TrEMBL record:
The keyword Ion transport does not apply. Keywords: Signal. The lineage of its organism: Bacteria, Pseudomonadati, Pseudomonadota, Alphaproteobacteria, Acetobacterales. Residues 1-23 form the signal peptide. This is Four-helix bundle copper-binding protein.
Amino acid sequence: MLQRRHLPAALAATGILPSSTLAQGTGGPAHRMQGGGHGTMSLRDCVLTCVRSHAMCLETARYCTEQTSGHIGPGHIALLQDCAEMCQLTANSLLRRSPRHAVICNACAELCETCTKACETFPGDEQMRRCAVVCRDCAESCRDMARSPI
C-alpha cells in the first residue's frame, strides 16, 4: 500500500497532481483558503484528501467483494464505488480550478458522509473503520473547500 508521505510525489509522477503544484507549495492566495473550523487549508490538501478517499473506497469495495461471509451487500459496494468516483471528480475539478467547485465539493461531502455512516454499521471490521475515517476527513475537507473561493 502507498505510504501517505509518498502520495504527493506518486500523484505528480502519474500526472494526477502536477509537479508544479508540489513546487508551489501552499503559498499564495490561489493555494491557501480559509477553512471552516480547521484554520487555513490548501487546495492541494483537499485534492490529496479526495485522492486518498478515492483510493480507500476502491480498496474497500474490493475488500467487500472478497468477503465470503456475505454480510456486505451489493448496495454497500455500489455506495463505495460511487463515493470513489465522486472523490476523483472532485479532485479533478479542484485541480482545474472549476468555477463550480462549491457545488461539486458539497456533493462529494454529502456522499462521503453517507459512506462514512454506512461503513460505521460494521463496527468490528477494521477495513470499514479505516474507510469511515478517511471518508469523514474528506467530507470535512470538501465542506471547508466549498466555502472557499478558488
